[in-house]
Design goal:
Helix content: 55-70%
Radius of gyration: 29 Å
Low-confidence stretches: none
Mean pLDDT: 77
Number of strands: 7
Length: about 290
Amino acid sequence: TFGLAVITIIVGSLLFRSLIRKPIKKLVVATEAISQGNLNVPVEVSGASDEFGVLSRSFENMRKGLKTAQDALRTSTVGQIATSLIRDFRAPMRQIIAAVEQIEKGDVDTATRSHLAGIARDSVVDMNKMAQDLVDFTTGSMKVTKRSANIQTLLTYVADNVRPDLDRDMIRLDVQHGVQTNVNIDYERFSRALASIVLYAVNYVPPEGTIRLASKPLEKGFQVVISDNGSGIPTQFKDRVFEPFTKIVQEKGLGLNMALAKRIVEMQGGSIRLESEEGKGTTFVIEMGL
């Protein structure tokens, strides 16, 4: 009986190692690889018809499905980026070509030539900005550098930069300085985020409408509110405002401005939310901690 028990234990141990332990170990290795984003490690499929054989085949089929989906997503994203970039480069390229062709004719006066050169230069700047936006968003290389900055000065700077666009569309900009102290923030990027939101709001504000840019103190931080009395964002589009490469309206650029604005705010420990009702305007609320 004792000998039979010993033999049974030895045989059971060998069976456990060959039939259970090895398949489990292989599945663990494959699981760890997938958890690290590596879908190129195949699972050794067991030919057995037991539970481990079924499990290994199911796991391998899942890995293949995920790999196919991953490859398709990458291809789709690259195609989307390329299409968006080419489409949005066409407008500034046309302006550059038209300006250069007119200058080449040689029958323009000095003032006109200077004006055309300015158009070409501004178009190049726009293209460089779009390319940098694309690099910042797709590579994740964008960094924020915080420093002490006066929030009142920052809002004034943003207002001065966006006012020409608003004046052209006959939209009034009302700036309210509820916070006049210094805050720790990335001045350049935060001002860029605010400008992007204000210019996005223009799309929903009619001539003679108003956009308000206001700062408000919080117990442990501050708040920037950008509100308008426009038509409001349609309900079906509200959840897509901050999606990259999404153009709900015919805005300039790659459709990255709002996605980048959200990223800039969140990278500095802040949050942004959207409140909008059709016919009653839109409000963007940015909250930043100290």
